[in-house]
Sequence to fold (643 residues):
Amino acid sequence: MNLTQKILSEHLISGRLVPGEEIAIRIDQTLTQDSTGTMAYLQFEAMGVKRVRTKKSVAYIDHNTLQTGFENADDHQYIQTVAKKHGIYCSKPGNGICHQVQLERFGVPGYTLLGSDSHTPTGGGIGMLAIGAGGLDVAVAMGGGAYYLACPKVVGIKLTGKLSYGVAAKDIILEVLRRLSVKGGVGKVMEYIGEGVKTLTVPERATIANMGAELGATTSIFPSDEVTRAFLKAQQREQDFVPLSADEGATYDETLTIDLSSLVPLVAKPHMPDLVETVEAVGPIKVDQVFIGSCTNSSYTDMMRVARILKGKTVHPDVSLVIGPGSKQVLTMLARNGALADMLGAGARILESACGPCIGMGQSPKSNGVSVRTNNRNFFGRSGTKSAGIYLTSCETAAITALTGVLTDPRCLDIDLDIPLPETFEVNDNLVIPPVEPGHEDEAEVVRGPNIQPFPLGKALTPDVSGKVLLKMEDNITTDHIAPSDAKLLPFRSNVPYLSDFCLTPVDAAFPARAKAEGGGLLVAGSNYGQGSSREHAALVPLYLGIRAVAAKSFARIHQANLINNGILPLTFENEADYDRIDQDDTLTLPGIRAAIEAGKERFTLRNDTKNEEYAVRMPLTDRQRGMILCGGLLNFTRESSK
Fold:
């Protein structure tokens, strides 16, 4: 077996490991972060489970850390108190980005990890099967329930050779994106194999696994080997090490070979992570801002390379350089060894250890600005400035660019960039708050601020579904389009009614008002609808606005699951050309849809009442998903099933 099959088989509760078939797996660990966490914990509370049943669950506060009003602070208090009551560890603001801290302090090779963040696959860097999901799926897992998914295909990505000077792990995943696209990983796990893997440190592996999310992959995974052991030993967690790898001669559904020695510095151009070219080809474009950090590139070794490039130099006068170390551990070590002083001396602005600019939480570029960043996404408007162009690069490229003021190939440097992994990391978990002991849950009080509003619940499916096409959209609509996320809106992640006024406004500013005036309706979209973040709000907000179904050419995995979890019908066109025949404001009907789903059908008729046409649409559902759709979502289904 390959490594993915090994871990899946050890955690398999039901189903067969046949690609496309539904399987249920046991979850060992969960993580949440604060922009998705409040909703996940509200859903967990609604389930009535007294204490989590995982091996370890951690609630991180790392997204909404900018406190410009009471909303974020209230959410933080809610998360910390609900975590304390229900057996969940809480990583306080300032302790670091969830994926970086999980890798450092809690991840265990061979474990399954389910997180309410799409970049949870970062854990694949130490041999975890780490999967991003919607908050409701995570809540169910915390309650001891299985996680259901379509058994993925496994792609063996064989790495050969060794990276050349100035070329980084970020360039490896950018090359994979260049070859496969943002849709290339849907329904697949990317398993990294080959002699080239041994040349990569755990932080480098984590960078690659992190951006597998941009491929649409279920997850990415590396073997757990002596490199992994060295990392865990340095984290004073050698007892967690388990050697894991694919069997000799293991087979894969697909394979891809990358010669590391042939790679050169790459850059993803606006506004999609797969618009990749060489830095040399893009040329020395003028740059206004550089951001180095995020869960993709904020490890100790990343930061040390940056400090070494900046030491004794000065940031270009036209560039604003901001740096966000990924965790308190990293920041503390930089402060102790002098690297932080080197960054400050060069003119860098140091941010707290949080997600920050990557999610649009501060540091938005100027109008029409060019920002070079080391994070994972450059979707339109995500930075907070719609007219800005965001370019994604490695830390090495970003650091030299900050000095020159133009996009620069780091191979021009004459600096030793070989940063060995520390023999011992500085360990201080004093910002991780433990829960109350078992049996003392009733002694803990959960505190809710006024910004925390009830989440909408789906309703049982009606015999027919009919409504006006409220919006027709193009390909690659992201969750940032559906549920915009910036410094102004992130504080309202606990307030779906407020967020509804911004739903899909990057596509059409009039959409929320139209949806409310019509009392709901349907959406039509192109391919890969809902790519990007795992945010459940991209389903909850349309649900609140009365969206009953989405007809698209194809869906991103997590968003499709979130729609089903909330009772919204995700329909795909059998003939993609039918997409072109539908116009906004057409009235569409799914006649007899409830009876057809009850009968187990997967192919339905979508009638265009306005044009007097009919289209074939598909919605393959498992028996469990069928029950969820009929009941109006997972929570309703769970309640009905427990009667």
